[in-house]
Amino acid sequence: MTQSRSTPTKPATPETPNIPSADKWQASLFEAMAVLRNQTSPRFDVLLKRGTMSVEVYAPQKQDHQTPHRQDELYIIQSGAGIFSRDGQRSPCRAGDVLLVPAGMDHRFEDFTDDFVTWVIFWGPDGGEAA
Question: Which of 26, 41, 107, 113 is buried most, with the most CB atoms less than 10 Å from its CB?
């Protein structure tokens, strides 16, 4: 049996990203980037979702206007480089880096390159998991 790699339930718009079906188990960065090319800010796409977990791709342009999220999250930098600001601390980041942000913490990417793309993984309950 062949599993569809990308079968969103509805077309993505800047206000409403793709929401994948619950049985989707594989995603493609190339397919996500094709969706993002047609979006303006914010540029992100939900690739996989199961329970509280979601896998997304995020490619900000010029500025990152994020606000704190209700869930814990991981960023896995796919391409590019920049500065990651997290709870008042700033650190360089680049392709291959993994960054952890607890739920509710102020964070954003700054001074990033034009080719900056990151995977985003959200999981856990509202308010995050216990430390």
Answer: 107
The answer to whether the pTM exceeds 0.85 is no
Written as tens digits, the pLDDT of the chain (131 aa) is 333 333 333 334 444 455 666 677 888 787 877 777 777 766 888 888 999 999 999 999 889 988 999 999 999 999 999 999 999 999 999 999 999 999 999 999 999 999 999 999 999 999 999 86
Encoding tokens for residue 125? 């309950």
Alpha-carbon 27 to chain mean position: 13
Q: How far apart are CA 54 and CA 63, in angstroms?
A: 23
Give, as one character, the DSSP assignment of residue 20. Answer: B
- Phi, then psi, of 33 in degrees rounded to 5: -65, -35
- φ/ψ of residue 32, rounded to 5: -65, -40
